[in-house]
Amino acid sequence: MERTIEKKWYMIHTYSSYEKKVKADLEKRIQTLELTEKVFRIVVPEEEIKEVKNGKEKIVFRKLFPGYVMIEMEAVREESNEGIWYSVDSDAWYVIRNTNGVTGFVGIGSDPMPMEDEEVSTILRFLGEEGEEKAEPKEEIVIGFELGDVVELLEGGFAGSAGEVNSIDIEHGKVKVMIDMFGRMTPVEVKVNEVKKVLAD
Q1: pTM greater than the 0.85 cutoff
Q2: Looking at 138, 154, 189, which one is the last position of a domain?
């Protein structure tokens, strides 16, 4: 049987919304318990999203795999006639497994299964962790109003006017607002980020 030591990435499962806490706790415990030669990097994969709501832009972070954290560890690769098998250090396994918020490793039974190298490279490239340019934030328009709501126009010749939402075209990011022009209700089409809902007093 041939045994070699390699660095492999694993996925650990956590309670929902505990991903960042698990990462921070694990980093602390690994330092304290001097396991830095066994556990290398811990990553919570997130994408950056440019959210446009009521005409205002803000950057938000959305987890790519909610409830999962990636962890790079030392693994022993064993190759025999029966195939290739990877095993992780038992001390490191115990510390990770018993960190608050961690429910277990992704694998078969209690045996962690390493992630595919190609899969890891794709994720790390997307996150800008491999010396690559980080992916551009996706723009996501959050519509804070619905049909029949009264909105205020923020830009253009009708800025400051209020009207009722008559139709919403999500695909093209447009909204039709009925405004009172010279005593007649007239439809005006604008971008969804150029209006904001008028809140009732």
Answers
A1: no
A2: 138
